[in-house]
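Example 3.
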Amino acid sequence: MLTFVTPDMLLPILALLVLSIDLFIESKNKTAILFDTAAAGVLLIIVLLFNLPHDQEFYYLTNYKVDGLRLLFKEIFAISLFFTILLGKGYARKNGNWRGILKYDSEFIALLIFCAFGMFCVVSAQELITLFIGLELATIPMYFLTAYYKKDQSSLEGAMKYIIMGSLTSALVLLGYSFWYGAVGCLRYEAILSFVQTNPDNPMFLAGAIFVFAAVCFKLAMVPFHMWAPDVYQAAPTPVTAFLSVASKSTAIAFVITLLYGPLAPIRHVFTYPLGILACITMTVGNLGAMRQYELRRFMAYSSIAQAGYIMLALVGNGKMAVPSIIYYLFIYLATNFCLFFIISVIGQKRPEEFASLRGLAKQSPALAGILVLCLFSLAGIPPLAGFTGKFMLFASAAEGGFYGLVIFAALNSTVSLYYYLLLIKEAYINKPEEDLESLEITFTQSFSIAILTLAVVILGLIPWFSSIITKIVG
Amino acid sequence: MIDTLFIILSLMIIFFATLVVTLPNILHCALALMASLFGSAGLYILLNAEMTALAQVAVYIGGVVIFIIFAIFLTTRMGEKTTPSSLPKIGWGLVLSSFAFAGFYGFYAKYLNSVSTTGYSTAEDGSMSAVGKILLNTGSEGLIIPFEIVSVLLLMTVIGAVVIARAETKALNCDSESQENI
Amino acid sequence: MTLHRLLLLSAVNFCLGMYGMVVRRNVICVLMAMELMFNAVIINFIAFAHYGNGHATEGSIFPIFIIAVTACEMAAALAIILTMYRKMHKLDVHRLDSLNG
């Protein structure tokens, strides 16, 4: 029965393994060894996760739950960890990025792995203490990783802002938990569930829930708590930005879903409508913000704020489709976003990661420019790419609850977003570079990852079995 | 007796907490924070939570605040005053915090009766043995999982803090071209 | 000593922390204000543990975890503060403006 938690247990062991390899092995290309070991280890964990039976429930020590929904979330975290490590490999070598070499590789990898371990704990938690500690374990490494370019003033400032915002979030979430504890008298999910069933409108409990969801809005960078995201995304090294935009967002979404479809299920309808309204405001703000950007990582921040809005909209339907559509979209979002970040990492080797650096990409590397177009169209939701299918399912889930107004609003937003995604394509295809460009180097790791992710972006939308499997597991 | 102690302790907590957010000298702020936390530790003993009081004194005061004081020594000169904040900021802070307090006050006045307050914990409930039995219990009562995860959290913090806080000497970055020495 | 008074005491602490976070300019002061907020939450937990008729020991265990996590958060913050001070020689939150946000 231990097999259900083997992947979780292997994560910290892998982190320690990487640290000890750094300690004991003397080699010329130690960086490559470290990153390859970590990637292989995470790949093993992904395989283990996929091999577990998704139709069973398992409780480890009665307080750590593993079931299909949780395994799917863990797969999302593990896959994004895998690609983050591959992305980071390009930054740890000379000329990997114009901002400098990423040093302390083994610690970098270990922090990422610990962070993923925290995310695993968030989804599997069955009482509030594990939930809280897991959320912190998923956040605190990101503070360090954001500050990883220690020579760069903006990196440190971004980390400082992130820390202040993050600690405020944990104070809020703790206040919410203390109210919950006051109302329920126990910290376990079953106790909370049975309490909520008998007193669905206990004001103390609802007040606590407001604080908890405010904190989640912070983590998800939803309006009105979105201002930290662009700064932090810009300050962090690009692999960390990619991890933040995919895995951290998924963690916050997993947090909401495990609560709303676990202990808070009887009063779910109280929260879904406000969350849907917030989601609509969030996607508008994200879209409007993205139009005025010229820095690619900042642009991706606003773009992912908007994407979080689309994802949260699915919860409003409160129907059977909500969770499967969100998980399906998270897989697609993972593939698309990581593909974009790999392209950004190729461009950022010698030039700053700005719109202007994309100029001439179509001439220099037609394949890369083509993949860029594919990914951007997928994010904008153009058929027949994966993003379209995903968004369609999200909107269909909201429509299931009869919220056609919100769905039309979101569809309009999605059309608006096409405008700024086209701006990027215009830079790549039409605008001429001012001076002659140095040729782009693509390492094997980068081309390999881009190939796999592009394949995922193209075929995940075309093959129907993927979404039906998810629906079968979760629905 | 207990009521008098409670009043003394809560006055102490509030007084020193006010000092923490108003004093111009950071070191004094840290000492006031220490006093405020001591007051809370006393309160926890009154409320039969002796293990928490112990952790508060040992970890919070003995660890975190001392750590803050170290950071203050490393980053400020003796007797240096912080730059005072602008008046609009202070006004904004006052408005925000008084609104928040009004919110709490109104909420508690109206809805506190929704919480059942019949039970009183005994000295047993917060004692070290009761806490230890739950923390190391693998059964349905137990909280061993967060107890183990928090150790991973502490390990991670040590690794991260060492990486970020260490000063880089010339010997370390032999592979660099444009790095300045801090 | 009633539950109501204890909760009000914690609310005062929480609001003082909020005030400090808005007003103070030095990063370390902001962090100390944050400590006040965490302390307020701990008081809340202990008060509910004592007066509520639930599981009292769990209510006094959660604060211990809060203290541990706060220590970690502080360690992270202070490590970054030290590096920042070495680099910039100022710790003013109102002037963290090299990012255009």
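Residues 171-182 of chain B have pLDDT under 50 and may be disordered. Residues 1-82 of chain B form a domain with the Four Helix Bundle (Hemerythrin (Met), subunit A) fold (CATH 1.20.120.1200).
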